[in-house]
Structures are given as C-alpha cells and as structure tokens.
C-alpha cells in the first residue's frame, strides 16, 4: 500500500505551550431539532471559531433530565419543562475553545427570548421562554459535569483543528 503521509504540519511549526481550552455543553432542544435549526446553530459555533469535540442526537428521559436540571427540580414549572424536554430528541454538543462557556451564553441569548438581542440564537429564532431552542452551560464547572452526564467518555474527542493557528495568537 501507499505509505501514509502526514499532512498535519502547520505553516508555523513554532512550538508553543498547549492552550488549556475549556468546553461548554450546548444542547439543541426538541423545538430546535423539529424546526430544522440544527445546521444553523452548529454553523454559528463553527464560524465563531469553536471546535466540535462531541455531537449526537439523543432522546432524553426523565432520569437524565432530573440530573441535568437538578437545581430546577423543585420549581413549579419543572413538570412542564420535563414534558417539553422529552417531547422529541435533542442534539447534544461539546464545543471547545477560548471562553466558550461565557461566549456560548452570549451567543444563545437570555432565557427569555424577549430579552434576547437580535443576533443571538434565541433573539433570532424564537418567541417563548417555553420554546427557547437551546441550552448552554452557565459555568465551566457545570459544563464539565454536563458533558460527563450527556456523553460517554469515548464520545468526546481530543483532536487538532487545522484552523487553530489562524484563530488563536
Ligand atoms: P437557561 O436555559 O437560560 O440557563 P434556566 O436554567 O434558568 O435557564 O432554565 C432552564 C430552562 O427552563 C429554560 O431554558 C426554559 O426552557 C425553562 N424556564 C426557565 N425559567 C422559566 C420560566 N420562568 N418559565 C418558563 N420556563 C422557564
């Protein structure tokens, strides 16, 4: 066979310390999937310069959602939230890059779409807090927990992005 030739040598082969990159758990909720917004939402994170580390479609169940929303389980609206979140499959994503947790929240917009600026995902694609399209981790600590909850270890992949040297100093 043909010998494998590595094409991974970057234009600037200057060695530099590996950046400690954070990850965020971003989830497209059942309404976002049913409305065909998966591609648009993925594109926004790709175009910003973030790197996909995990991606899958999943039908969530009550037990999983009770862990994910453990701080909301006692709220009066929790049964309605549960019904919404199990009404169809969700798209689970782990996105990696500089400040992706805080930036992800900015890109999503506010919990209430009315408070979300145009240009954000919620500010562009939805009208109701009950059908607000997407979830994003609110802290690095919660992001790590949520990624571990929604993904198996082998489903989150460490890999080099060919664009990295053009996005980061
Ligand atoms: P976020 O998703 O913006 O982090 P929360 O974690 O507070 O917001 O709430 C989780 C989800 O529960 C929201 O995205 C929304 O779908 C729903 N939700 C939260 N608060 C309310 C509310 N007051 N009325 C209706 N739905 C709510």
UniProtKB/TrEMBL annotation:
Binding site for ATP: 29, 77, 105, 111, 122, 132
GO molecular function, one term: nucleoside diphosphate kinase activity
Reaction(s) catalysed by this chain's protein: a 2'-deoxyribonucleoside 5'-diphosphate + ATP = a 2'-deoxyribonucleoside 5'-triphosphate + ADP
Keywords per UniProt: ATP-binding, Kinase, Nucleotide-binding, Signal, Transferase
EC number of this enzyme: 2.7.4.6
Enzyme active site: 135
Example GO biological process: CTP biosynthetic process
Catalytic class of the enzyme: transferase
Superkingdom assignment: Eukaryota
Residue ranges of every copy of the Nucleoside diphosphate kinase-like domain listed in the record: 21-158
Cofactor: Mg(2+)
Stated family: Belongs to the NDK family.
Protein name: Nucleoside diphosphate kinase
Taxonomic lineage from the root: Eukaryota, Sar, Stramenopiles, Ochrophyta, PX clade
């Amino acid at each position: 066979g043909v010998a494998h030739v590595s094409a991974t040598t970057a234009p600037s082969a200057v060695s530099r310390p590996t950046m400690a990159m954070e990850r965020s758990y971003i989830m497209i909720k059942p309404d976002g999937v049913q409305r065909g917004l998966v591609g648009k939402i993925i594109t926004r994170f790709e175009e910003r310069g973030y790197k996909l580390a995990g991606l899958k479609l999943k039908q969530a169940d009550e037990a999983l959602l009770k862990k994910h929303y453990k701080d909301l389980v006692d709220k009066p609206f929790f049964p309605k939230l549960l019904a919404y979140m199990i009404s169809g499959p969700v798209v689970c994503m782990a996105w990696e890059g500089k400040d992706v947790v805080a930036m992800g929240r900015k890109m999503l917009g506010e919990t209430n779409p009315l408070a979300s600026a145009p240009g954000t995902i919620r500010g562009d694609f939805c009208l109701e807090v009950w059908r607000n399209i997407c979830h994003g981790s609110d802290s690095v600590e919660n992001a790590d927990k949520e990624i571990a909850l929604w993904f198996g270890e082998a489903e989150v992949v460490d890999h080099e992005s060919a664009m990295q040297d053009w996005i980061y100093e």
